[in-house]
Design brief:
- By secondary structure, this protein is of the alpha+beta class.
- Helices cover 18% and strands 38% of the residues.
- The strands form five sheets. A six-stranded mixed beta sheet has the order 2-3-1-4-5-6, sandwiched between helices.
Length: 415
């Protein structure tokens, strides 16, 4: 089994069967503890309902009562190839902001479409967001084939339409798979009723996707905090890209100062020489005093190329953002830009254009406002420089949140 997990997101219109699909994936891979299954059966019985796989994901009592999925749910299942971190993103328009934060962590996506209802507004919005976030590994899941008599004709009509919609948003699905999540057909196991389909099952499609090889990138180590341990300043954080090594020369961004890593510390481990992307560690450096919000990057040591492995240092961010709150944004209102551990005040200086994600039409160019649930291409002017990457290169340094008055108002990616 591969060491790294693959992070996937499931998106789709409300009631198209996302939670049912996740529950089925758990059940069919043997990843559901027996006691959890019994708990769900008891809850269903107490509510006078038949057992539903959707209740595996709908853990909160409020969710069970309303029969909807309210928040992002992170959980795990495994195949013989690897483990999966699966992010179930709500489809309700009012919860779209949660979907944004869930998708931004994903390396692959399953886009669910109910074949009995077709492509609906939220499906179009989710297609746009997948394209906006640059998720390249996408499988379309044509669910509820049992409701249309397992019709190949109906499937092909949906297949042609969703391919066209995604192409408009610069997304090319790797697979389009007909399934019935409730009956477990083509999720992990094939079925005679869909014998006309010759492609992979849902699990086979997931196993064909690749994990993001962040360890092959240049080093990115955002400093989260500084602790005084035995008289030494220990900087702690998570290696977001590359490999961090003892004795390594690094650039401290955004100040562009240089330092050398003299010690690498990890809980209950000694004599650590290197750590890969994804590990949370502590380090001691020689040469400079570190502080929260700084980012350590590779120093090549090559004459004239000292910044080759570094991120972009800038006070002007060009990005696509999704406005997540009900109140519209007016040009010039102050915001706080948060990227990794960096936090800087600023304001949106220019709104190049704003879009309706459902129609992908430009609503207005050179706009003065951004309305709720709109996507906008903007320039954000910051009070001081930050270290950033393009989202497509190093996701953690390429995505950010905007806050106003202490509350998140937008999520975005750097383009």
């Amino acid at each position: 089994m591969e060491e790294r997990s693959l992070h996937i997101v499931i998106v789709g219109h409300v009631d198209h069967g996302k939670s049912t699909l996740v529950g089925r994936l758990f059940h069919d891979t043997g990843s559901l503890p027996p006691e959890k299954l019994e708990e769900i059966k008891r809850v269903c019985a107490s509510m006078g309902r038949e057992f539903e796989f959707a209740y595996i994901m709908d853990n909160l009592e409020e969710e069970r009562q309303k029969n909807i999925t309210i928040d992002i749910a992170h959980t795990f299942f495994a195949t013989r190839k690897r483990r999966y971190v699966i992010i179930d993103a709500p489809g309700h328009k009012e919860f779209l902001k949660n979907m944004i934060s869930g998708t931004s962590q994903a390396e692959a996506a399953l886009l669910l479409v109910d074949v009995s209802r077709g492509i609906e507004e939220q499906t179009l919005r989710h297609c746009y967001i997948l394209g906006l976030l640059g998720i390249k590994q996408v499988a379309v899941i044509a669910n509820k084939m049992d409701l249309v008599g397992y019709s190949e004709k109906v499937f092909n009509e949906i297949k042609d339409r969703i391919t066209e919609v995604l192409a408009e948003r610069k997304v090319k699905p790797a697979y389009i798979i007909p399934i019935s999540a409730s009956k477990g057909e083509n999720v992990a196991n094939r079925t005679e009723r869909l014998s006309w389909y010759k492609g992979p099952t849902v699990l086979e499609s997931l196993d064909s996707f690749e994990t993001l090889k962040t360890e092959e990138k240049d080093l990115r180590f955002p400093v989260q905090d500084i602790y005084d341990i035995d008289g030494k300043a220990v900087a702690v954080g998570r290696v977001e890209a590359g490999v961090l090594r003892k004795g390594q020369n690094v650039i401290i961004m955004p100040q562009k100062k240089k330092a050398r890593i003299t010690e690498v510390k990890k809980y209950l481990q000694d004599n650590i020489s290197e750590v890969p992307a994804g590990d949370c560690i502590g380090i001691i450096v020689d040469g400079e005093k570190l502080e929260r919000g700084q980012v350590l990057a590779t120093d090549t040591g090559i004459q004239g190329q000292a910044d080759k492995g570094a991120a972009t240092i800038t006070d002007l961010i060009h990005a696509n953002i999704f406005w997540m709150v009900d109140k519209e944004y007016k040009l010039g209102i102050p915001v706080t830009f948060k990227c990794a551990t960096q936090e800087v005040r600023g304001k949106i200086e220019k709104i190049h254009r704003r879009f309706d994600p459902a129609s992908i039409k430009v609503v207005e160019s050179n706009a003065k406002t951004i309305k709720p649930a709109e996507v906008a291409e903007v320039d954000i002017r910051l009070e001081k420089p930050v270290a950033v990457d393009r989202f497509s290169d190093i996701p953690e340094l390429g995505r950010f949140v905007l806050e106003h008055a202490g509350h998140p108002v937008a999520g975005g990616i750097i383009i």
